[in-house]
Amino acid sequence: MQTFIVEGFLAADPSVLSAQGSGRKRASFRLVETTRFRKADGQPGERTTGFNCVCFNERTAEAYIGAFARKGTRAVVQGHVENDSWTGKDGVEHYDLRLIVSDIRLKNRREPRVEGGEVTVDGPQPDAGQDLQDDIPF
Fold first, then answer.
1. For residue 122, which of 111, 130, 135 has the smallest C-alpha distance?
2. Structural domain boundaries of the chain?
3. How many whole angstroms separate alpha carbon 113 and alpha carbon 118?
4. Computed over its alpha carbons, how large is the radius of gyration of the chain?
5. Could you report the per-residue pLDDT of 83-104, keeping only the tens digit for each?
6. Sequence-separated (6 or more) residues with CB below 8 Å from residue 135
7. β partners of residue 25
8. Which of 5, 31, 82, 91 is the residue whose CA sits 20 to 30 A from 73?
């Protein structure tokens, strides 16, 4: 089996659905990545590719993707590609490729929180007593 790794942005909020028979949760989302390049004549160009992704790991789908992933979230997804086919309402056979997610890393920006009129950002903050203009000894 081949492993596929892609980094991009979620095109929309992911959907976390339950399977009809078993009730098991799965997450599906679309990841888009844009490649920038120079054409032969020197003009800049870009190509955007979308990937339909499905995560069958219940815990990851519900507790991680469903809770933290939103439209515009930057993500690194690892998985393998499978063919997907279905017959439409008009009787035409449709084909698509989808990425079956085995690992995902979200690269969310830290969102500021407003508490009692004060804006704070999650994560370590520099000590107020530190002098950031000191010379570095090396």
1. 111
2. 4-109
3. 8
4. 21
5. 988 899 999 999 888 999 999 9
6. none
7. 18
8. 82
DSSP state of 67: H
**Which structure tokens are listed for 122?**
């999650």
> From CA 94, how far away is CA 22, in angstroms rounded?
26
Tokens, residue 69 = 């992933």
What fold does the segment set 4-109 form as a domain? OB fold (Dihydrolipoamide Acetyltransferase, E2P) (2.40.50)
Using DSSP's 3-state secondary structure scheme, residue 21 falls into: coil
Residue ranges of E strands in the chain? 4-10, 15-18, 25-38, 44-55, 74-87, 93-107, 112-115, 118-121
What's the whole-model pTM score? 0.70
CA pair distance 69, 56, nearest whole angstrom = 16
